[in-house]
Amino acid sequence: MPVEIVLDALRAKGIYLKKEGKGWKARCPLHDDKTPSLQISEGKGSRALIHCFSGCKIEEILAALNLNMSDMFTGRKQIYLTVEELASAKNLPKHFLLELGVKDFHGSVKITYRDLDSSLECRQRRRTALKARQGSSWYPDKKPIVPYGLWRLPFSKKAGKLIIVEGESDCWAGWYHKFQVLGLPGADTARYLMAEHLDRIKTLYILREPDAGGKTFLRGLSARLLQLGFTGEVRVLIMPDGVKDLCELHIKDPKQFSSSLEELLKSCPALPDAPLDAGIAVMESRLDEFLFSELKLYRGLYLLEQLQGTDPGDTFLATYRQIQASTGLVPSAISRAQKALILKGWINVQPGEASGSKRAPSKYQRLLPPPIFSQYCHFSHYRNDSVKPECLGQTFDIIATEKVALAYVREKRFIEKKKEKEKLNREDFKREKRKIESLKKKDLEKECLNINLLEKENNTKENVSEKYYLSHLREKEENEGEINIICSDSPIKSEIESDVITKNVSESLKSDEKTCHHDTDSHPDIISVALRIFGGRVLKDNQPS
Q1: Is residue 67 located within the same domain as residue 88?
Q2: Are residues 66 and 204 in the same domain?
């Protein structure tokens, strides 16, 4: 169909297509688009409709895509590349490529990528030219990119050796001669190599091509292996003069390929230790000026710089997700550390443009050589204002700046400790308050219980004393032949008289008189009771003592 011809031509140019309604949107190949301005849709009679909102002419757009106006109507497919042409250029049998999943696809060649479990849940590659740099693209965009040849890794793990190369053609040449090879789809794609891919690999060979891309490829892989913690032996495979990669070695002499490669593998030098980066060296020598999150962020940016093959100090693109993966920090910590490093003059960041809910990758740059001192400005929590710098970006002498750095670090630590102490004090105060309130509540309940018990006891005593008094009165009134204790209507008077008689009896007993002469007719009951208490006896007036 004509629309498919136009879409295939755009994909061959590496232009991203976005589905929108019944059509597609893409960036125009004639001018530098920040947002997609080219619209493609299907019209009546299955013809293709193209419109550029920036005003580009259709004829010029078609010419840039190697198409003409007849392609918009006839539905003629344009053939860019076939499997037979690719096999002939690489000096490989066509059936060998077909067995690997290389096949014709809409006028181009589809290179099948598979995951570790041989599934197709990953991006696929399309080739429209004999060389990948001249025409290749990925699809679909939502699936992950993986190294080429993962489904053949079990054979490499048995051998314990693996050669890592750049591109698919080198993999075809190595596999054709029974070597264990894994391909990365680009010089700056070392980040797609995972630890599970290197499981049980004891010796790893990295093919370094004799160009700038080879240098980038080696540097990125070295950083990636350090990040993954690979403990096996790593060697650098260097090709002989006049040969770029394994594919060219195979094209040059297929019969001598195996023996030549075996000799090269035996003479491979070990991977040299990466020199310490200047920025990291300076930062580690002055750890008092930086928080741990700032150091981790700077190390993570250095690692991303190496993985993407960027020269130290150059600008590179990175997303928040990539920074999280390289640093292990949460987004809030990344944001704080990023602001601090920008303020101190160590990095430069240009945020990416936001389009809806998505944001383009930001541009990062480590400022090298690193500053001799860090710029500390506009910190409002200095206790000593005389140490605080006056303006942003002002240059200070080293001694003054070191004092500022130490003052800032000490002040920050002091504030953090103070906040922690206040937090603990608040928690202790709340805990003590809750404890006191619970004790008060228990004491109040206990006091109420005691009051209730006392009230019950007092009520019981009053009832008992009242009953006893009334019964005593009844007994005295019933004894008519005896003396009446109550001499009058007042109970107080009878009580006084009984006390007087008892006192007289006790005085007579103390004078060794064990007998008492008293008028027994007056108060016989009281006298008998008193003498019983003090051990005497009652005598009448006419009896001898």
Answers
A1: no
A2: no
